[in-house]
Design a protein that fits this description.
CATH architecture: Beta Barrel
Shape: globular
CATH class: Mainly Beta
CATH topology: Lipocalin
Radius of gyration: 15 Å
Largest sheet: 10 strands, antiparallel, barrel
Oligomer: single chain
C-alpha cells in the first residue's frame, strides 16, 4: 500500500480507538471530560480505504485509548491483507472553557497532521492538515468521529474533489 493511502487509513483509526459505552448525558454540551473517557479501552475493527484513482483496500485495526483529564491518547496499528502494517498515535485535547478540540496525528511512515475542530453531540468533526514535518504532504481532509453505544465510526474525506483518500472504519470494544 502506498504511503499516501496508508496515512488516510491511519487518520481514520482515531475514531476507533475509543470504546467504552457512551451514555446519553455524554453528548450534552459541557460533558467533554465524559465524552473523552469514552475513548478509553481496547478496540478492534475493519473498514475500507478508497484512493482517488479508484483502487481500494480492506483494513484491520487495533487501538488502545487512554484518557487523562482533558486529553486522550490513542495508540494503534492498522494493516491490509497484503500484510502491510503501520503504527498510529493520535492525541486529542479539549480546550477548557470552549468547544474546541485540537491535537496531532502521527503515523509510522511519516505522516504528521494537525487536528482541530468541535463536537456536536456524539460526533467530533476535525480538520486534518498535514504539517511541514510530514514526509509527503497530502491535500487537506475532514475527519468525522461518531460514537455510538458499542461502536466508533470514522469517516475521512478529502476536501478537494477527486484528490486524496476516502476512509470508512468501524471499531468495536474488544
Amino acid at each position: 500500500m502506498q504511503h499516501h493511502a496508508m496515512k488516510w487509513l491511519l487518520a481514520t483509526s482515531l475514531a476507533f480507538a475509543a470504546a467504552t459505552p457512551v451514555l446519553a448525558q455524554d453528548s450534552a454540551p459541557g460533558n467533554d471530560a465524559s465524552f473523552l473517557r469514552s475513548f478509553e479501552g481496547k478496540f478492534t475493527g475493519s473498514g475500507r480505504l478508497q484512493r482517488a484513482g479508484g483502487s481500494s483496500h480492506n483494513l484491520s485495526c487495533k487501538f488502545s485509548g487512554d484518557q487523562e483529564g482533558s486529553r486522550v491518547v490513542l495508540n494503534g496499528t492498522c494493516s491490509t491483507a497484503l500484510v502491510f502494517s503501520t503504527t498510529v498515535r493520535i492525541e486529542i485535547r479539549h480546550e477548557a472553557g470552549g468547544q474546541r478540540y485540537e491535537g496531532t496525528f502521527r503515523e509510522g511512515t511519516g505522516t504528521v497532521a494537525a487536528l482541530a475542530g468541535s463536537r456536536q453531540g456524539r460526533t467530533l468533526s476535525l480538520s486534518f492538515n498535514e504539517t511541514a514535518e510530514s514526509v509527503r504532504p497530502g491535500p487537506p481532509a475532514r475527519l468525522s468521529i461518531s460514537r455510538t453505544q458499542n461502536d466508533m465510526v470514522l469517516t475521512l474525506r478529502g476536501t478537494k474533489p477527486g484528490e486524496g483518500q476516502n476512509l470508512d472504519l468501524t471499531l468495536r470494544e474488544s
